[in-house]
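Hi everyone,

Forwarding the result from last night's run.
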Amino acid sequence: MMRAGLAGLFDLFMSPGPIGAHLATVRRSAAFRWFALVETERESTAAGGAVLRFRPERGAPVELALRLDARERVAGMTLAIEAAFLAHPTRPFALDALKTALAALARGRGAPAPLGSLATHLEAEMGAPVSPPAPSAEVAAALAVVAGRTTHWRAEGRRFAVSLGWEGGALVLSAPPMTPGA
């Protein structure tokens, strides 16, 4: 049991992030195991890829959608968390899903710079024994979206962008690839 826990912890901290990773690698990740994500839908795309949707096995109101290319590599992702799940007393569980996704994205090559700090601030809000420095203006703006005080935030990296926003009663984290010339 201890060995499996250490392997999951190593996987969590050493992962290069989901964007660009093969689907099989993402499915074996500590986050997939921790949240017990199960595939609920698969839709083919015109480019030969697919969009796969996952939900936690235990029924939490969270949905992860992975956009795959034709080689089954993750080209983009979306995490939607229903607003009611972000309400007290389930808020720490909802924030854990968001924090975990942000932390995984932050490890990716070409990730937007503020993701790691944002994940740490969410971890502190969950009650974890971390003491992050005062948030930058960019991180404070993202935290305002999570708190429901504003409706949209976006940060761009070299390989993909990340946005947070409220859509249809859910907080949505989106990480599409950067489009050259866009």
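The longest helix spans residues 91-106.

Cheers,
N.
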